[in-house]
Design brief:
The complex is a heterodimer of chains A (324) and B (494). Chain A has 324 residues and is mostly helical. Helix content of chain A is 77%, strand content 0%. Chain A contains twelve helices and no strands. The radius of gyration of chain A is 20 Å and the shape is globular. With 494 residues, chain B is mainly alpha-helical. Chain B contains 15 helices and eight strands. In chain B, the strands form four sheets. Chain B has a two-stranded antiparallel ribbon with strand order 1-2. In chain B, strands 3-6 form a two-stranded antiparallel sheet. A two-stranded antiparallel ribbon of chain B has the order 4-5. In chain B, helix 4 crosses helix 6 and helix 6 runs antiparallel to helix 7. The radius of gyration of chain B is 25 Å and the shape is globular. Chain B starts with a helix and ends in a 30-residue tail after the last helix. The chains are: A mainly alpha (324), B mainly alpha (494). The interface between A and B is large, with 88 and 95 residues.
Chain lengths: 324, 494
């Protein structure tokens, strides 16, 4: 009653198990694509700003959406808890300290973003900014490091994974800023995309093809190559001022890389754990499927509407006094 | 001291801390949405000023609720992996629903509300706030349903050492959940009402040039007594109604305890042996005969189970172990919850009496009075002593609601899932003492700093008061001239 036995017979992988693995991969993809540019914007904020007005302009691009973007992570993790409890619990307890650092980073980042406009002195604003930068850089690095370590278990893979996710997030953020701002900040964001791409593309050339390991399905190789090509295309497009297309390209790159990652984890989401072993019972998955079917389209629709409402570029020429 | 103890401390610290902010988010959100609705319907600028003033306080607090909530989502897996593996099939579903149905709604529409003042039509803008507020309240439903399952597991069977859900509807309509959800949500509205009462009391004093401690302050700062009075009345009504709900559902919870978690009830009463016509001990030594039986079974002669006898029965059923929770904590938190909660409701009832409007017929000038009353002019000024008493409305319900959680969760020990899984068997086996110690220390320190910062920020904004009514945010009739790049105003936040 109080002791846990490991499941003896391995249950088969069912259609519902497959579906929920794909749903979870989709939620992680949404998280990496959306919070990816949030992280990049946060990391670039001090580098692209010459004044406090610039900083407000930079942060104004993610202001209405970052919190909603973060819910993709909460939902991905919650869905793992419900659909694959053993995956959830072993992943989080296994990567205890890195996950803790991610959470701590997100805490200071959230506090910084929400409070920045409500504090009064320069020093307090600087503290908020420090929280935003730390809380953007740290998780952006750690997610790549966690999954790199998960796949290979080596220090090299950990560092390479972290470097990949951080540099791609910065490039993605620079492209997003170039797309969403006007004036000098837009120019600087476009210029910042060059060194960001110079870091991200070489790292990607090494790291991305390594994602599909031995037993991964063949298509994951294709996804990794597509991710690489899209990343290079994004860098070229932003330089040629095709910012909308550039953003599409970097977003596609992140999505393809995440697809390759989850395609590789399909056989064994964690070393020594198969999906079927980790899975909840069919009844639970059926319940979750109904809930997901009802809720997810709505979520996607109203989040898309948010981006539509705030589709205009953020300009710098806004009076600073009008605090909420 | 081992990893289990520290993991428990970490859960306690992070959860209690999280729950200092969440009730305010739940209740204050509805209050602000109510104010904005009033503005939308009447066009009265006072309501707009109040909306923006309390909206700002709401947002400062909301940030903390969100970031500390993140920890909760990860903590089950990090520190309690055996628990998570055992319960995930059942417990995970409401958590996933919470994220999917509530958190997305809350965060997305709150972003629209904060940045949408000048971009959205008034009506849509107001609807965004309501959507966010509904999200907050929905999240309370799901997380409390999950929590209730730990105390009274239903709709499941144990297969291969893991709980398997058999009836989702039973999980969502668990009797424990249905009693607990209005009890806790009602408590949240009492906390939020108390917060508004304290803030308005403070503003009333300040704008009359009075200090908190009797004496005169240097200067008058504003002339909005009628506006504050309106806010105060609203908060008093909210607190009083929510207080009645809390008391009623608390009674319901007590009766469920007697059948579902008798040990918790016995510990809360310090009742050692099975007793017919059990007395209610007010404090040790002072007893009201038969009251406990009356409360737990609505029958003064009913038998209530006592701790020692339950211990013996549990040993027979589950094997030798200590099945008694921490007695002093459970006993006293129960009393603190009741006394502090009742005091808040009493305070709100007193406030309602003191702010009542003069009777229609009194003085024979009914007709003129009616218009005056509508404008709040005929009402008597709020006595200064009561404005000072209002300050208590902030700490009282906060202490009560924290005490309620201590009673509920420490009283559940030694179980994480009543009758199925013990706390000692729930902890992550691979996580070391040092790891838990580090995260506990950092979370506690980080939370301490953030709590001070939030307190200071709230106080500063309360002292500064609302904006002058000069610049009501209206929807711009035309797009700014020139480029197609219309201005977005990020300054609402940054």
């Amino acid at each position: 009653m109080t002791t846990l036995m490991t499941t003896s017979a391995t249950p088969p992988v069912t259609a519902l198990t497959t579906l929920w693995f794909i749903v979870i991969a989709f939620l992680w993809t949404g998280y990496f694509v959306l919070e990816g540019f949030d992280f990049g914007v946060g990391a670039l904020m001090p580098l692209l700003s010459r004044s406090d007005a610039d900083r407000r302009q930079v942060l104004g691009t993610i202001g209405p959406v970052w919190d909603g973007n973060e819910v993709w992570l909460i939902t991905a993790v919650g869905a793992m808890f419900a659909a694959f409890p053993a995956w959830y619990s072993r992943l989080l307890s296994g990567f205890y300290l890195p996950v803790f650092l991610v959470v701590a980073g997100l805490i200071v980042r959230g506090a910084g973003l929400e409070w920045r406009g409500k504090v009064s002195s320069r020093r307090e604003r600087a503290l908020c900014d420090a929280g935003i930068v730390t809380g953007s850089v740290l998780p952006a690095f750690l997610w790549g490091a966690i999954f790199g370590n998960l796949l290979y278990g080596t220090l090299l893979a950990t560092v390479l994974g972290g470097a990949l996710s951080l540099s791609v997030a910065v490039l993605h953020g620079a492209v997003f800023l170039a797309l969403k701002t006007a004036g000098p900040v837009r120019r600087r964001a476009r210029r910042a995309a060059v060194p960001a791409a110079a870091c991200a593309v070489p790292v990607a050339v090494v790291a991305l093809p390594a994602i599909p390991g031995g037993g991964a399905p063949a298509w994951t190789q294709g996804a990794a190559l597509a991710a690489m090509a899209a990343l290079a295309a994004g860098a070229a497009l932003v330089w040629r001022r095709r910012e909308g297309w550039a953003f599409t390209a970097t977003a596609t790159s992140i999505a393809a890389a995440t697809a390759a990652l989850f395609g590789t984890m399909w056989a064994a989401p964690l070393p020594g754990l198969t999906l079927a072993e980790a899975s909840s019972a069919p009844y639970t998955l059926k319940v979750l499927t109904w809930i997901g079917l009802i809720a997810l389209p709505g979520v996607i629709a109203y989040q898309a509407w948010t981006y539509w409402v705030f589709r205009k570029r953020v300009t710098g020429e806004v009076p600073a006094l009008q605090a909420h | 001291m081992d990893a289990l103890d520290l993991a428990r401390w970490q859960f306690g610290v992070t959860t209690v801390y999280h729950f200092l902010f969440v009730p305010l988010t739940i209740g204050l959100g509805v209050f602000v949405a109510g104010l904005q609705t009033a503005w939308y319907r009447t066009g009265n600028d006072d309501y707009l000023r109040l909306t923006r003033f309390f909206g700002k306080l709401f947002l400062i607090n909301f940030a903390m609720g969100v970031v500390t909530g993140l920890v909760q989502e990860f903590q089950f897996g990090m520190n309690w992996s055996e628990y998570s593996t055992f319960v995930g099939d059942v417990f995970g579903a409401p958590l996933a629903m919470e994220a999917l149905l509530a958190f997305f709604l809350e965060s997305t529409f709150l972003g629209l509300w904060i940045f949408g003042w000048e971009r959205l039509p008034k009506r849509i803008h107001l609807a965004c706030l309501w959507a966010a507020v509904i999200g907050s309240n929905l999240s309370a439903y799901f997380i409390l349903a999950a929590n209730a399952w730990m105390k009274h597991p239903v709709g499941y069977e144990v297969v291969d050492g893991r709980a398997r859900m058999t009836d989702f509807w039973a999980v969502l309509t668990n009797s424990t959940a249905l009693a607990q959800i209005p009890h806790v949500t009602g408590g949240a509205f009492v906390v939020a009402g108390g917060f508004v009462i304290a803030v308005t009391g403070y503003r009333i004093l300040r704008e009359r040039g009075l200090r908190l401690i009797p004496g005169r302050a240097p200067a008058h700062e504003g002339h909005s007594q009628a506006m504050w009075r309106t806010a105060l009345r609203g908060a008093l009504v909210m607190t009083a109604i929510a207080g009645v709900v809390v008391a009623g559902t608390g009674d319901q919870s007590g009766r469920l305890l007697a059948e579902q978690q008798p040990m918790k009830l016995a510990a809360a009463e310090g009742l050692r042996h099975d007793t017919a016509g059990a007395p209610f001990s007010v404090v040790p030594g002072v007893e009201v005969p038969g009251l406990l039986s009356l409360l737990s079974a609505h029958d003064p002669g009913a038998t209530v189970q006592g701790m020692d006898d339950i211990q013996a029965r549990y040993e027979k059923a589950f094997g030798p172990a200590d099945y008694t929770p921490n007695l002093p904590v459970v006993f006293w938190s129960f009393r603190v919850m009741i006394v502090f909660g009742m005091a808040t409701v009493g305070l709100s009832a007193l406030g309602l009496w003191l702010t009542r409007r003069p009777r229609l017929a009194r003085g024979g000038q009914g007709r003129r009075d009616r218009r005056d009353r509508r404008d709040g002019r005929a009402a008597r000024p709020l006595p200064a002593w009561f404005a000072r008493v209002c300050m208590l409305a902030l700490p009282l319900p906060t202490v009560a609601i924290v005490a309620g959680w201590l009673l509920s969760e420490i009283g559940r020990q030694p179980w994480t899932v009543q009758g199925e899984l013990m706390t000692a068997a729930s902890v992550s086996p691979g996580v070391s003492l040092a790891e838990v110690a580090v995260t506990l220390a950092v979370f506690t320190a980080l939370y301490g700093v953030l709590a001070l910062a939030e307190g200071a920020l709230l106080l500063r904004h309360v002292k500064a008061g609302p904006e002058e009514p000069a610049a009501p945010p209206a929807l711009p009739a035309t797009a700014p001239a020139g480029s197609g790049e219309a201005r977005l105003t990020p300054t609402l936040m940054y």
